[in-house]
Amino acid sequence: MSVPAFSDISKSANDLLSKDFYHLSAGTIEVKSNTPNNVAFKVTGKNSHDKATSGALEGKYSDKSLGLTLTQTWNTANALDTKIELADSLAKGLKAETVFQFLPVTNNTGAKLNLTFKQSAFHGRAFFDLLKGPTANVDAVIGHEGFLAGASAGYNVQKAAVTGYSAAVGYVAPAYSAAVTATDNLSVFAASYYHKVNPNVEASAKAVWNSKSGNTVGLEVASKYRLDPVSFAKAKINDRGVAAVAYNVLLRPGVTVGIGASFDTQKIDQATHKVGASFTFES
C-alpha cells in the first residue's frame, strides 16, 4: 500500500464524512468530455443557497509519454489559471508543477511552484508561492507496514519566520484506517476512524478538539450503503444534531444524479434545513 500525502492521512474517513453530500449547494452541474487527441474538457456550474451562481471552464491536455499535463481554467470571477505538470520526467517519483494565475480586472498575478517526491515508503511535498512572501510550505510522510507518521511546516522568507506547523500519525489496513492529527501549530487535534465493514457498507467517525476554544469536542459519524452496483446512500450526524442524507445513482452510462438534504434536529420547526441536487454528464 502506497504512502499517502500528509493531507491524505485521514482521507478515507474525511471522504466518507464530506464527499457526495449534495445539500451544500442548491444545485450543481458538471459536464465532462474527452477527445481522441488527449484533450479533456470540464464545465462546472454551481448555484448556492444564497442565490449566487458560479462556474468554471477547464481544458486539460495530457501526453503520457512525456509525463506532461497542461491545464487551463477560466471561471466566472474572470480568473485565469494555468498549470503545467511534469511527472517522472526529471526523476523517478518526482512531479513538478507550476501554477500561474491572472486576474484581468485588477491585473493581479500569481506564480507557484509545487514539488512532489514519492517512493515506496516516503511521500514528500513542497509548495512555493513565488510572489507572495515568498512563502514555502513543506510536508513529508514516512510509512512502514501500514504505520504512518508525518509533519508539515510553513515558512515566510521575507519575514524569516515559521508560519505554522502540524503533525500526524496513522495506520492503514485494507479494511480500516485510523489517524490522529495535530494542526494549527499543534492546537487543533483530530482523531478519525474508517471501516469498510463489507463490500456494501462503510462507516467512519471523527472527533475534533480545539485547545484554544475550550474543552468542547466535536464529533461526527457517517455511513455509506451501496444499494446496488449503480447507486448508494449516505447519512451522517454531528454532535450539534445536524444530520444529512444523500442518494447517488448512475442513471445510464455517463449520467449521474445526486440528491441530498440536511436537517437541524434541534430546530425542526425552523427554516434551517437545506436541499440540493447534483448532475454529472460524461462522454
Spell out the key features of this protein.
single chain, 283 residues, 19-stranded mixed beta barrel, 3% helix
Q: Could you walk me through the main structural features you see in this protein, from its secondary elements to its overall organization?
A:
By secondary structure, the chain is an all-beta fold. The protein has one helix and 19 strands. The chain has one helix spanning 11-18; strands spanning 27-34, 39-47, 53-63, 68-75, 80-87, 94-103, 108-119, 122-129, 135-144, 147-156, 161-172, 176-183, 188-198, 201-210, 217-228, 231-238, 242-252, 255-264, 274-282. The chain has a 19-stranded mixed barrel. It is globular, with a radius of gyration of 21 Å. It starts with 10 loop residues before the first helix and ends with a strand. The mean pLDDT is 94.
Could you report the average pLDDT, rounded to the nearest whole number?
Answer: 94
End-to-end distance:
32 Å
Q: How many H/I helices?
A: 1
Structural class: mainly beta
Tell how many strands the DSSP assignment holds.
Answer: 19
Q: What would you report as the Rg, rounded to the nearest angstrom?
A: 21 Å
Report helical residue fraction.
under 10%
- Mass-distribution shape: globular
Assess the beta-strand content as a share of residues.
Answer: over 45%
What profile does the largest beta sheet have?
19 strands, mixed, barrel
Q: State the low-pLDDT regions, or none.
A: none
Give me the strand/helix succession: HEEEEEEEEEEEEEEEEEEE
